[in-house]
Design a protein that fits this description.
Elements lengths: L1 H16 L2 H42 L1
């Protein structure tokens, strides 16, 4: 029984040292954050640019 507990403990320590999964989660979070910021920026700039172009078109038409 003690040998089995020791083997489980050894396995858990090895899992705790494995950082591949953690780094993939971190990269996933970074990609999601960058995507959110990019979408917000494009939406905001697109709305402002559309307004300015419409104002310019109206000014040229008068």
């Amino acid at each position: 029984m003690i040998m089995r507990i020791h083997a489980i403990k050894k396995h858990l320590v090895a899992l705790a040292r494995d950082e591949e999964g953690a780094s993939m989660v971190e990269y996933g979070l970074l990609v999601a954050l960058i995507a959110i910021v990019a979408i917000a920026a494009v939406t905001l700039l697109g709305t402002n640019l559309s307004t300015k172009l419409n104002d310019a078109a109206t000014g040229l038409g008068s």
